Amino acid sequence: MGKKTTIYDIAKRLNTTASTVSRALNNSPKISKKTKDLVLETANKMNYQQNKLALALKSGKSNNVGVIVPRIDSNFFASIIKGIEENLYAHGYRVIICQTQNNQNIEVEIINTLLKAQVDGILMSISSINLDTKNSFNRILQKQIPLIFFDRKANIKDVSSVTINDFEAGYMATKHLINQGCKKIAHLSGNILLDIFNNRFLGYKKALEEEGIEFNKAYVLKIRSTVKDGQNAAKQLLKLRNPPNGIFSSSDYAALGAIQEIKANGIKIPGDIKVVGFANEPFTKFMELSISTIDQSPVEMGKIAANVFLQQSNNSENTKIEKNVVLAPKLIIRKSSLKHPNE
Amino acid sequence: MGKKTTIYDIAKRLNTTASTVSRALNNSPKISKKTKDLVLETANKMNYQQNKLALALKSGKSNNVGVIVPRIDSNFFASIIKGIEENLYAHGYRVIICQTQNNQNIEVEIINTLLKAQVDGILMSISSINLDTKNSFNRILQKQIPLIFFDRKANIKDVSSVTINDFEAGYMATKHLINQGCKKIAHLSGNILLDIFNNRFLGYKKALEEEGIEFNKAYVLKIRSTVKDGQNAAKQLLKLRNPPNGIFSSSDYAALGAIQEIKANGIKIPGDIKVVGFANEPFTKFMELSISTIDQSPVEMGKIAANVFLQQSNNSENTKIEKNVVLAPKLIIRKSSLKHPNE
DNA sequence: ATTTATCTTGCAAACATTTTTAAAACCTAT
DNA sequence: ATAGGTTTTAAAAATGTTTGCAAGATAAAT
User: Fold this and answer.
1) Is the separation of the CB atoms in B326 and B163 below 8 Å?
2) Of A38, A321, B65, B297, which one has the greatest count of Cβ atoms within 10 A?
């Protein structure tokens, strides 16, 4: 009873061959209605389930898609995955999740593993960009497997991507702070080697420039996306002879840490210092002092990334057509950055 | 150049056969060092990558494990998946993610799909329990595929599970409220057909009983895990002739909604009403009025569920040995439930 | 030099499908 | 009744591996 029933089993019972059964199950026009019904009935009776593995081997399509993210337990990435999964499931694809933990060795290894598993496509948010990873990307492309970047992209020819306009986001956030009366604006930045962080930084700079505010190198600190790093950054900023009165953080978590630290020093938010974060993590909305932030529409981003994949894998011609979708960021204004929070 | 190289290609180039190449690559002792080196070298040169699909078909092991959750974009489930993924990846398994969206039809369909995909195991948190799903579970068991429940389990013979002690959690939370001076304690409950919610409810009742507090049916409301439902529930509770002064919510989101609603009515938390939530979602910690809650150690839960799977799939004997791991919940006391929040 | 033992390799089957090609079976019209 | 055509089924090849069995080659021992 533990054995799986195959089309051979069905064939044997009906005194026919596997090919007939296969065609009958696939509703081929070459099979008479009578045998079709018979096959279908016995298949049901025998509890037959198609073995997708065999089909995959035969057809060369596994119907599996690999999704690679730095980590899954952040609302941002979880939401993207939600979008991808929902869209691809409806098209018969299964989604294989892998986390790099921001480790480039793991990243390269994961790509290899997915290739061996014969995935039909790879959707990923890169953790690092260097010679090894670039090599991996090329191996994917050589095998003609669709590769799509989301959020954190590398600039590689023929590779599509779905991102938000991070430059615009940085610009909007900074401009908003200026509009609320800030003249001395700090920026908590991520690793500038990644496009997303670099672009946010450039947007920040542009906004300052436009308003004739001089760029102050001491106001820009590199942080990881943690509460702790935000606290440390705030400490450092408050120690300055001329501390900022506005902070644009590339991370909601760091923004939170900064806010906690600043408050602990008896300094008022948004009164004395105004803060804008990034990513619209759920907690930013729920806090008493709700945090202004940038929304990146992660679920939509995931859905679009999935769509781009579907397009590319349908049109084998299109595999080489690069398509770069850039979503508009949304500035979400909450209390942490308002000049007059009670109005 | 787009063609994949197979062991046949390597064999042809070396004027030998596929079997030799296979053995060489697998470091079989039956192959001389000389040819091994030769094969390995040319395999590298030709950019060979093993086709896991073929191997899977041959061996009957796909090295894929299906993970089914109601949704992925909640910190709780994302964290569990993180634990599962990290543990299983290290053992050569890939994790296929599926969401049921709490829909039982989808749930049944997903199980079917995973079975066809020949997964080596299914780890799931059930969405619903009824005849159809039970049928699906039986089909999994019939195929001798390890099935492990986490958090939301069904009581099925021979099926292992990893849960927390929800009874204890409900008891702890309620007892804590009582200790903080509450005598009139409401409970926001989920669907009581699911064990987790029923057990939390029973724990709640037990604590009341132990303290000689009479059970009041009007204090128990059924909610979904949303802010909105929490708000509505609070509205309803406040309308009572004798409103509660403590709330134990089965959901952090609902607890948040209740808190918002209560505050909006000018009622003090924790002064007038004390609140405890459930799940330790990140925001509960970050809020100005931090929310007391129950931590379920989701990452650990995922890791343990993965371990149970690994044990069962190694010992084919053990497949039928039910193992029910019950983790201890942790009551995390924060401001929302404290008699004297400033001490 | 021949047998025996040991080491190394090749052949073919197996995994569960689909698909191409070929062959029956059936029917219709002459 | 038979040629021609159409419909239906059967046989075989193909997908990329692993593996049991047999055989070939080499080395050792008589």
Assistant:
1) yes
2) B65
Residues of A in contact with B98 (CB under 8 A): 85, 89, 94-95
Q: Round to whole Å and give the CA distance between B119 and B64.
A: 5
Within chain A, residue ranges assigned H as helices are 7-14, 18-25, 33-45, 52-59, 75-89, 104-116, 131-142, 166-179, 195-210, 227-239, 252-264, 282-286, 298-314
CB-based contact B154:B137 (threshold 8 Å): yes
Task: Enumerate the domain spans of chain A.
Answer: 7-50, 63-164+298-327, 166-296+331-337
Q: Which nucleotide is nearest to B55 (CA to C1')?
A: D17
Tell me if domain A7-50 and domain A63-164+298-327 are identical in fold: no
**Which residue, A261, A225, A286, A266, is CA-closest to A275?**
A261
Closest residue in A to B77 (Cα–Cα): A73
The domain defined by A63-164+298-327 folds into Rossmann fold (3.40.50)
Closest-CA residue to A339 (of A185, A153, A179): A179
H-run or E-run covering B91: none
pTM: 0.94
Q: Is A33 exposed, middle or buried (0-12, 13-18, 19+ CB in 10 A)?
A: exposed
| Cβ <8 Å between A96 and B64 | yes
- The CATH class given to the A7-50 domain equals mainly alpha
CB proximity A144 to B under 8 Å? yes
- Assign domain A166-296+331-337 to its CATH architecture: 3-Layer(aba) Sandwich (3.40)
pLDDT in tens, chain B (343 residues): 457 899 999 999 999 999 999 999 999 888 988 999 999 999 999 999 999 999 999 999 999 999 999 999 999 999 999 999 999 999 999 999 999 999 999 999 999 999 999 999 999 999 988 889 999 999 999 999 999 999 999 999 989 999 999 999 999 999 999 999 999 999 999 999 999 999 999 999 999 999 999 999 999 999 999 999 999 999 999 999 999 999 999 999 999 999 999 999 999 999 999 999 999 999 999 998 999 999 999 999 999 999 999 999 987 655 567 889 999 999 999 999 998 877 5
d(CA A186, CA A207): 12
